[in-house]
Write a structure and sequence with these properties.
The chain is of the alpha/beta class and about 375 residues long. The chain is built from 17 helices and ten strands.
Amino acid sequence: MTRPGQRAMARLLPDDAPGRAVALEVLRGGGIVAMPTDTVYGVGVALDAPDGLARLFAAKNRPLDRAIVLLVAHMEQAASVGVISPVARLLAERFWPGGLTLVLAQAPGAVLPAALTGGAGTIGVRVPDHDCPRELARALGPLPVTSANLSGQPEARDAAGVLEQLGERIELVLDGGLARGGTPSTVVDCSGELPRVLREGAIEAGRLVEALETAFMGDRGSRDVAKSRAVRAVGVEAAVAAAKRLAERVAVGGDYESPDFWAFLLGAEFGRGDPELGWDFLCRVTEAVSDERALSLIGASQLKDFCWVAGPAFIDRIEERARTHPRFRAALSEVWPGRGTIPAEIYARIRRASGRGETQPDDARPGLDI
């Protein structure tokens, strides 16, 4: 029984066809509905509901300056509210439905409440890998959804958790069992000329680099420049973390034939397109990797390649780094075993090749033989 002044507890229905039909009625009537998603439970309101966003913020005690993402059913819906650039389209085709949120410039003619966007000229959109929010969005249009919890409190992974925090603040909870939970979505800002990773999440940096490299290849045609732009978009720290994870996984499993491993071996080649970026990457990754076998892989592949692609301008820096940083020296010793430095004959060959504008011949490359 509801006491005077106390709001009624939200209705609880299974996440099935009848339950979703009721959810659509509630949303069309301006109510707030909690639902399962591919990560945690979310809570949403119809975009055109009068004062709907204000009530959604109030239900969560959410600060008004924090934007809310729109969950959409498909890319066409995303295009109705945001400008989908060629890079954004490639990322969406690669990772939707799934854990990727794209921040897009608002589409011309799209009328979006300032409360939704935090006052910015951009909007975050995502196609979730769960039927429930996609079906609701397909029927209603882009759906503002945020996590179903009070701001600052743990995210709800089941209907009971939603009722505990928001039960008296919303109208309906669709019970889809235990949500998968885990990592929140990766957020990529595609509103400018160069995409920027705002948050690494469900989509790892290595996969983003690979996808962005493909996108930039179509734009500029140079693999080295494309990889450099991709690494800058993802961020060097995230790229180092991805390389560390992959090197250690391959070192333990010995899966040298995997496509991921061969993509990793090309990691230093963006040094040809942006040597300073390549140098920064290698200095960081040799310090980050703790597994000795993984450090061997980095030395025998990425550092070996960098010695050639960056040319003589970096030789002094390479040798100084080897003198002052034991882990870098250990990686370099994998290129030329027992030396921990660049042999004089190799130094001379690098200088000659650089003077003629040549790259290292495949049959002359020292290092790992697999």
